[in-house]
Amino acid sequence: MGSRDLEDLAKVEELTVLVTGFGAFGNNGINPSHLIASSLPSSFTADDLPNIKIVKASPIPVHYRTVRDVVPRLLFPQPPGKMALTRSYPPSIPTSLFQDLPDADPVAEDKPRFDFVLHIGMAAPREYFTMETCAHRDRYLGKDEAGETMEGDTLWRDEYKAPEILRPGFDAEDVWKRWKSDLMGVDVRPSSDAGRYLCDFIYYTSLVEYWRKDSKPMAPVMFLHVPGSSGDYDIEMGRKVALGLIGAMVASTSARRTEGVERFAQ
User: Fold this and answer.
1) Which helix (H) or strand (E) holds 237?
2) What's the CA gap between 46 and 213, in Å, rounded?
3) What is the pLDDT of residue 86?
């Protein structure tokens, strides 16, 4: 369980992927990102790849400080005393977010719970799908569902000394080409602008946790933006696109060869 060295992928029988979607946002009482995430199968197989097990989180509240508190605990085991929230943030964190987490050594704080992570979010005006290739540290000025922003927050910049931009450890061009070739006729695009809102924020939150751990050999995290429509056809298409992206992430990683530890900064 947990992120593995690239050379190990061909030797394992099963890989685990965490998939998250967001909760209610604006006029969207049910966020299509969560509908797509929850529609995914519990596992699937792809050509020449291990079985891929999918762990689906409950919808993540559209709230900056909740995201910052929840995501590290989803990704990495926490030592005794750190599981309790440092302070109360509205809205309350659903306990169901933590019910289906795989067992992990509580002492092994640096070992991720999952081999891969896919966050899904909604980009309402778009009619196409995008894989985001980077996340940003600063300028989260749009109000979340609790009416809060991150204006004036300096945790990542001053305490963590984290870079302004973080990127996943994937070969983004290779992932995109594999993804696109598997979805002929579907409009899928790479993007370097996740929007400076909760989508960008959760992406950076995940990437910075791997950056802090200096986890090797890569930060196996990707963000998928989906259109805002939530009809049956839209969710089924989103399901197909998400599974295709997961397969492309795993296939690209399996095909790569690496020497030493990769860094995640620009």
Assistant:
1) helix 232-255
2) 30
3) 39
Q: How far is the C-alpha of 29 from the C-alpha of 22, rounded, in Å? A: 11
Q: Which residue has the tokens 């960008």?
A: 200
In the block, tokens 């933590």 appear at 98
Helix-strand-coil split of the chain, %, nearest 5: 30, 15, 50
Helix (H) or strand (E) holding 225: strand 221-226
CA 246 to chain centre: 11
CA atoms within 13 A of residue 145's CA, in its CB half-sphere? 20
Measured between alpha carbons, how far is 41 from 21 in angstroms, rounded to an integer? 15
Strands (E) in 102-213, as ranges, are 116-122, 129-132, 135-136, 165-166, 188-191
Q: List CB contacts of 18: < 8 A, sequence separation 6 or more.
A: 55, 57, 74, 75, 113, 114, 116, 117, 118
Among 230, 218, 224, which Cα is nearest to 247's? 224
Separation of alpha carbons 127 and 225, rounded Å = 10
* 118 Cβ neighbours under 8 A, 6+ residues apart: 17, 18, 19, 20, 221, 222, 223, 224, 242, 245, 246, 249
Structure tokens at 3: 């992120």
CB-CB contact of 115 with 3 (8 Å): yes
The alpha-carbon radius of gyration of the chain (Å, integer) is 17
Residue 6 exposed, middle or buried by CB count within 10 Å (0-12, 13-18, 19+): middle
Q: How confident is the model over 167-214, as pLDDT tens digits?
A: 999 999 999 999 999 998 999 999 999 999 999 999 999 999 999 987
Q: Rounded to two decimals, what is the model's pTM?
A: 0.87
